[in-house]
């Protein structure tokens, strides 16, 4: 019971930090805190359960300055991208709807089934920019979809599973509001990497 209540306490604290309802203004934000809160909320999807193996999260955090942005919204972006990565890793295990997108299972995908991981790297690029990169070794993204990823309602997921708004909203927040950049790199069958550039001030 004690372990359970401690865990509930942690989740409630993370949810409160994550949504930052009391902070709708531009603010100095600690990026790593935002990522860690997001991971805490998603922990139930990272743990091993039923046929899904545990998803390892590898953090490669650099020393970062605080950046000025809307904290709740930035956390929303981390959430959207990490949830997509988890979906892409789970899709390798239960390859139902997604098999239409990527019919050939490569040897690398079979390996990934047993070794799913998400790597989160932060870096200072120069005095103006920091980057956050979130990479998975999941299904990957076919070349033909790259130009559509950030369009509203573009989804390859089953009806009722994806609305196709996650990356569209993330793009609005990063590019339109925070004057940053968001890009995707992927080799189909090997995984996908989303790189966010955020201006320091
Ligand atoms: N890490 C990833 N690996 C493979 N495909 C991805 C990844 N991230 C995004 N995609 C592809 O981009 C599409 C659009 O992503 P987006 O987050 O906008 O929508 P969604 O996840 O389908 O639905 P929603 O986020 O609204 O629930 C996904 O349906 C998927 O095909
Ligand atoms: Mg999504």
TrEMBL record:
Residues 1-201 form the Histidine kinase domain. SMART domains: HATPase_c. Its EC number is 2.7.13.3. It catalyses: ATP + protein L-histidine = ADP + protein N-phospho-L-histidine. Pfam families: HATPase_c. InterPro entries: HATPase_C_sf, HATPase_dom, His_kinase_dom, Sig_transdc_His_kin-like_C. One of its GO terms (biological process) is phosphorelay signal transduction system. PROSITE patterns: HIS_KIN. Keywords: ATP-binding, Kinase, Nucleotide-binding, Phosphoprotein, Transferase, Two-component regulatory system. This is histidine kinase. It comes from Nostoc flagelliforme CCNUN1.
């Amino acid at each position: 019971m004690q372990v359970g209540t401690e865990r509930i306490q942690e989740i409630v604290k993370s949810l409160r930090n994550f949504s930052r309802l009391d902070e709708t203004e531009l603010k100095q934000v600690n990026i790593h805190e935002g990522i860690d809160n997001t991971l805490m909320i998603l922990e139930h999807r990272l743990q091993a359960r039923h046929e899904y193996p545990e998803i390892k999260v590898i953090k490669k955090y650099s020393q970062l300055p605080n950046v000025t942005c809307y904290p709740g919204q930035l956390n929303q972006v981390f959430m959207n991208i990490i949830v997509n990565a988890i979906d892409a890793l789970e899709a390798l295990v239960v390859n139902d709807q997604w098999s239409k997108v990527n019919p050939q299972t490569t040897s690398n995908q079979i390996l990934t089934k047993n070794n799913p991981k998400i790597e989160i790297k932060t870096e200072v690029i120069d005095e103006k920019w920091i980057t956050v990169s979130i990479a998975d070794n999941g299904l990957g993204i076919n070349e033909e979809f790259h130009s559509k990823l950030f369009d509203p309602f573009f989804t390859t997921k089953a009806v009722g599973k994806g609305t196709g708004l996650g990356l569209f909203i993330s793009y609005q927040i990063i590019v339109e509001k925070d004057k940053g950049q968001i890009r995707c790199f992927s080799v189909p069958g090997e995984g996908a990497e989303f790189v966010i550039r955020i201006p320091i001030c």
